[in-house]
Amino acid sequence: MSDWGPIFVSVLLFVLLTPGLLFQLPGHHRVVDFGSFRTSGAAILVHALLYFALVCVFFVAVRVHFYIG
């Protein structure tokens, strides 16, 4: 059996935390912009740090596992 948990969590977080897709932190005109489809260097850095923190939480603290097969 193979563990698909880390793969599913990584892909889901990558899609949800893409800057400008659902939200952008910091935004262009406000602190948070929703659905702007634009990005900046600061937003990329903030979203990368959020991604790293959430991946660490899900992999180390929660230990998400999906076994298929």
From TrEMBL:
Record's keyword terms, sorted: Membrane, Transmembrane, Transmembrane helix
Domain of life of the organism encoding this protein: Eukaryota
Transmembrane spans: 6-23, 44-68
Pfam families for this protein: DUF3339
Signal peptide: none
PANTHER family (alphabetical): OS05G0103400 PROTEIN, TRANSMEMBRANE PROTEIN
Full protein name: Transmembrane protein
Organism: Lithospermum erythrorhizon (Purple gromwell)
Lineage start: Eukaryota, Viridiplantae, Streptophyta, Embryophyta, Tracheophyta
